[in-house]
Write a structure and sequence with these properties.
Length: 471
């Protein structure tokens, strides 16, 4: 008898070990699944079998095929002697419904879990809050939350992030303020919420409160959630604060995403020198394509065409393969820097050497490059050939016509734009300015009246300023 027990225990340990070892290999898990169905090696040890079935359900629920978890649950439940599933089973199944975005099935599991007595279980109810909130059923999520006799920090964070996901920032803040305790996940969720709804100063203020006043250490996820707010505000002060923190904590060296965002943030805040120093501080093995593209884009943003071109060549020398965004960045740099020959060479390299199909933005950069250099006929020919119905491309060409005072082409391009869209006031203004610069004031006035007659929209002027006081 002892030998039989030892054999069963050995079988159980072996199967459980295989499940854990191959948890990310679908084919191996399916083989174990089939083995359990065909052999029932632990038929008289229902607790051990339940652990194995739960491990399978967990694998399916959290993996690429969550529907398999529900199928397995249904199959086992339809057997002659069905299992009495535990709270782990229901938690995994409800998570599968969240991953599948099937709240109707999740609602059925909600009813079933209540029927079997898990309506007060912390883990099952937290899974339900997550499932409803993740699917946008915020009223149901709040109802389950309010009826829970016990909640933990995970439960509070699940509700908070659910409100954030669906843009209910006021409800999210109310949950945040009511939390009996908060961790870095709570603060990160709220910062992310403010960033999502473009309340950038609120995000920065909350981050400062978190770090300075509460002494909570942000993670790389916190920083990644904060960077869009730094970009939009253009706060060099916050760039330096984040940079200093990453240097001291080691986050910059651990996560290349933080490095890439820091390069971009410094560039957008006007400090290209700091962006370059961050880039240079990272060893070549840690840099990825995004790192190189971010630096090239930073040079392009600051009109440093030669530096962007040199950075691209260094990237190629390091064996990093560029993508379409890399080429768009370096072409834009050449356009703004007047390096037409280099820009055309990059375009040729993109198409011929790397086989990348140009997008509308690449054609726009190409036309802008030729237009700035006064090669308007070439630019028009390209626009006619590749983007006859793209107003963005034609407006780029119209801007070049205005810059070079080409009245004839300006009229022709404007007519082309009017065939596509009539109600954008900027087109009329540009053509009117072209006429005025050529001394054709009657025609200029006629275009202005045409704009008013067609009620074309005009963007109001605004003043942008960077706020330095976030206290």
């Amino acid at each position: 008898m002892f030998d039989k027990m030892s054999t069963r225990q050995s079988q159980y340990n072996h199967l459980l070990s295989l499940l854990h070892k191959h948890s990310h290999r679908r084919r191996a898990i399916q083989q174990i699944h089939c083995h359990l169905l065909l052999t029932n090696p632990l038929l008289n040890h229902r607790i051990c079998l339940l652990v194995l079935w739960n491990s399978l359900i967990k694998h399916y629920a959290l993996g690429t095929f969550p529907q398999d978890a529900l199928s397995l649950f249904k199959y086992i439940g339809n057997q002659r002697n069905p299992f009495s599933f535990d709270t782990f089973t229901y938690s995994y199944l409800i998570k599968a419904c969240a991953n599948m975005n099937t709240p109707d099935v999740g609602n059925q599991l909600h009813c079933l879990s209540t029927k079997v007595g898990f309506h007060t279980n912390l883990h099952v109810q937290t899974a339900l809050v997550n499932m409803y909130a993740d699917s946008g059923y915020l009223v149901e999520a709040r109802k389950v939350f309010d009826e829970m006799p016990e909640r933990n920090l995970v439960t509070w964070n699940v509700l908070l992030t659910g409100f954030v996901k669906w843009g209910e920032i006021g409800l999210a803040r109310a949950v945040f303020d009511a939390m009996p305790e908060k961790n870095v996940v709570s603060w990160t969720g709220m910062i992310d919420g403010y960033t999502r709804v473009n309340r950038f100063h609120d995000a920065l203020n909350l981050f400062r409160t978190m770090v300075v006043h509460q002494g909570i250490r942000p993670t790389e996820v916190t920083l990644l959630a904060l960077f869009p707010s730094i970009w939009n505000v253009g706060s060099l002060e916050f760039c330096q604060m984040i940079h200093g923190y990453t240097e001291k904590s080691g986050l910059k060296m651990m996560d290349v995403r933080v490095v890439n965002c820091l390069i971009d943030a410094y560039s957008r805040s006007g400090s290209i020198g700091s962006a370059w120093r961050v880039f240079e501080d990272v060893d070549d093995e840690s840099k990825n394509l995004v790192s190189w593209t971010s630096m090239i884009s930073a040079f392009a943003m600051h009109g440093m065409a030669a530096e962007a071109s040199h950075c691209y060549k260094e990237m190629e020398n390091k064996g990093v393969t560029p993508n379409s965004i890399t080429f768009l960045s370096v072409m834009s740099a050449c356009s703004h820097g007047g390096l037409v020959v280099k820009g055309l060479e990059f375009y040729r390299k993109m198409v011929d050497d790397y086989g990348i199909v140009p997008g509308i933005k690449h054609y726009g950069a190409l036309i802008d490059m030729l237009g700035r250099a006064g090669r308007l006929e070439e630019a028009e020919k390209i626009a006619l050939g590749v983007a006859p119905s793209e107003t963005v491309v034609w407006r780029t060409l119209l801007g070049a016509c205005s810059f070079h005072g080409n009245v004839v082409m300006g009229e022709r391009v404007t007519r082309r734009i009017m065939e596509i869209e009539l109600r954008y006031g900027g087109d009329y203004v540009l053509l009117s300015n072209i006429f005025s610069a050529a001394g054709r004031f009657v025609d200029s006035e006629r275009v202005r009246k045409m704009m008013d007659g067609r009620n074309a929209s005009k963007l109001a002027g605004i003043t942008l300023s960077t706020c330095r006081d976030f206290s």
